[in-house]
């Protein structure tokens, strides 16, 4: 059992290493683009697309790290009913450092910082809500399932939904966060939860259903920009880049997770804990 646990730890750290490398790469790309101009409107359409692609990829890497920290099954060696927290704290600290750096770097462009944080929070909430309902964690060897759904679990779900609603309401009042941006953020969050549950589940080939969702996102976001009289082609290109970047790196990271034997919903290897606190 210790050998299996050690192997799983190595797989997790390899996954987190790739997530960290990609997130740093996206931050470098974003910083480089922001140094080229004093306002986003001065960027060329191609640069706006690259900026959006990097923002979408950054949101995915942060979401993947947050989802891992929230849902991964890391049982304590001394008590299998409890979860280890040191690895989660390390991921949280690194994530906070990157968020602070993005906030400092994008001071004149506060909408980029708000967009990245909103995207991460809303996208991470989806898998957490599924976990609260199913009590199934992301695992690599054996799946722990508790069939005792309690009132506390429903209250936790309600609390999370209330937080996300408040965050989105705050985003609506942010001057530079348009309705189109919120639509992109919410739809990307749905994509993350859907593709996560499918690729790490039994019916992974059905992930191709994300393609019509992608097309719908591109069409709807472009239509909203035009109908609301927003900043034309540049905004359309940036939204398209965000959507495509989010989709591409969602599939890339989740395929990497599946290749590392991470599984979530639909696993056949499982055992029950009658009194698990999680």
TrEMBL record:
Keyword Zinc: no
Transmembrane segments: 15-37, 49-73, 85-104, 110-133, 154-170, 182-200, 207-225, 240-257
Domain of life from the UniProt record: Bacteria
Keyword entries, A-Z: Membrane, Transmembrane, Transmembrane helix
Name of the protein: Transmembrane protein
């Amino acid at each position: 059992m210790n050998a299996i646990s050690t192997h799983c730890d190595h797989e997790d750290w390899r996954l987190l290493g790739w997530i960290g490398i990609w997130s740093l790469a996206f931050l470098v790309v974003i910083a480089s683009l922001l140094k080229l101009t004093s306002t986003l409107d001065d960027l060329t359409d191609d640069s706006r697309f690259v900026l959006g692609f990097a923002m979408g990829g950054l949101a995915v890497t942060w979401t993947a790290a947050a989802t891992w920290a929230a849902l991964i099954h890391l049982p304590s060696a001394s008590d299998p009913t409890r979860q280890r927290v040191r690895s989660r704290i390390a991921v949280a600290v690194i994530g906070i450092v990157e968020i602070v750096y993005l906030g400092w770097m994008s001071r004149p462009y506060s909408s980029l910082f708000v967009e990245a944080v909103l995207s991460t929070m809303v996208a991470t909430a989806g898998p957490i809500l599924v976990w609260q309902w199913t009590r199934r964690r992301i695992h690599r060897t054996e799946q722990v399932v508790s069939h005792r759904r309690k009132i506390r679990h429903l209250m936790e779900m309600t609390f999370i939904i209330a937080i996300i609603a408040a965050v989105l309401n705050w985003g609506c009042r942010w001057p530079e966060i348009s309705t189109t941006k919120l639509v992109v953020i919410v739809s990307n969050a749905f994509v993350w939860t859907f593709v996560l549950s499918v690729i790490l589940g039994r019916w992974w080939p059905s992930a191709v259903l994300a393609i019509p969702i992608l097309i719908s996102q591109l069409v709807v976001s472009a239509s909203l920009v035009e109908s609301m009289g927003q900043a034309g082609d540049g905004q359309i290109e940036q939204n398209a880049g965000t959507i495509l970047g989010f989709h591409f790196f969602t599939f890339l990271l989740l395929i990497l997770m599946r290749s590392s034997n991470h599984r979530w919903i639909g696993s056949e290897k499982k055992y029950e804990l009658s009194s698990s606190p999680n």
